[in-house]
Design goal:
The protein has one domain. The protein contains 2 helices and 17 strands.
Length: about 240
């Protein structure tokens, strides 16, 4: 049963681009222009090459599983020429709709790519994600794989934790996703915490994020939620799940 990501992009000149490719679960994958031949566009071209010098203002990612609604968004983003996260993209499952405006417009350039990761919805602990937007314009994406009754620290693609990656920054917005069909803390109050949480090195609570279940049952794109969190070197972001 195949799953693909479909990404609609709108640019400041009013033009559109459509990206679509198959995905493997739990694998960050580049999505290139649609090669079905149904649309009058050149297929299998990276986002930056296909739209060079255009300014993208709106974007949405949809996860589509063949004859099923089990695909859940983990993350979607524009990546730069050095593999860095340039801007997270909102999205969701098969019924997600709309075309959200990006927090800041992004100019396409050769070497820039759109990459997407999905997971299959499950009851057991699964991957949580936090997309981050900082006041400086810096962005990043952090992932953690849940372990029943245990604290798991979020890390970015370079294996850096929250504090190491964002030290000195001020986080002004996040969106979070989690693919468990029954939520983060689905067996009561004994072991899990319903929200992803940020703590200082002294264990003081600095932030909490309720994750979206970005699946077929949630037709709204994973929303950006405003916040105001200053980040120090030894701060941590944690997923505490139970099943």
């Amino acid at each position: 049963m195949a799953t693909h990501a479909a990404v609609v992009c709108r640019f400041s000149d009013g033009s559109y681009s459509f990206l679509r490719d198959n995905l493997s679960a739990d694998t960050l994958t580049e999505i290139q222009t649609d090669a079905s031949g149904i649309l009058n566009i050149a297929g299998d071209i990276s986002w930056g090459v296909a739209n060079q010098d255009k300014i993208m203002t709106h974007c949405l990612c949809k996860i589509q599983t063949d004859s099923a609604g089990s695909g859940v968004l983990v993350s979607a983003a524009i990546y730069g020429t050095q593999g860095e996260v340039v801007m997270p993209i909102q999205g969701g499952g098969i019924y997600v709709s709309g075309l959200p405006q990006l927090p800041a417009p992004i100019t396409a350039a050769s070497g820039m790519k759109v990459k997407v990761e999905f997971q299959a919805a499950a009851d057991a602990c699964t991957t949580g994600s936090i997309a981050v937007l900082c006041k400086s314009g810096k962005t990043d994406i952090f992932l953690a794989v849940g372990s029943d009754g245990a604290d798991v620290l979020f890390q970015n693609k370079d294996s850096n934790g929250w504090g190491d990656a964002l030290a000195g920054e001020r986080v002004i917005a996040t969106y979070s996703c989690y693919g468990s069909t029954y939520g983060v803390a689905d067996t009561g109050v004994a072991d899990g915490i319903d929200a992803f949480f940020v703590e200082s090195s002294q264990g003081n609570l600095k932030g909490m994020f309720y994750p979206t279940y970005a699946s077929a049952s949630h037709p709204i794109p994973a929303p950006w939620n405003p916040c105001n969190i200053s980040v120090n070197q030894n701060d941590t972001a944690t997923l505490r799940a139970n099943v």
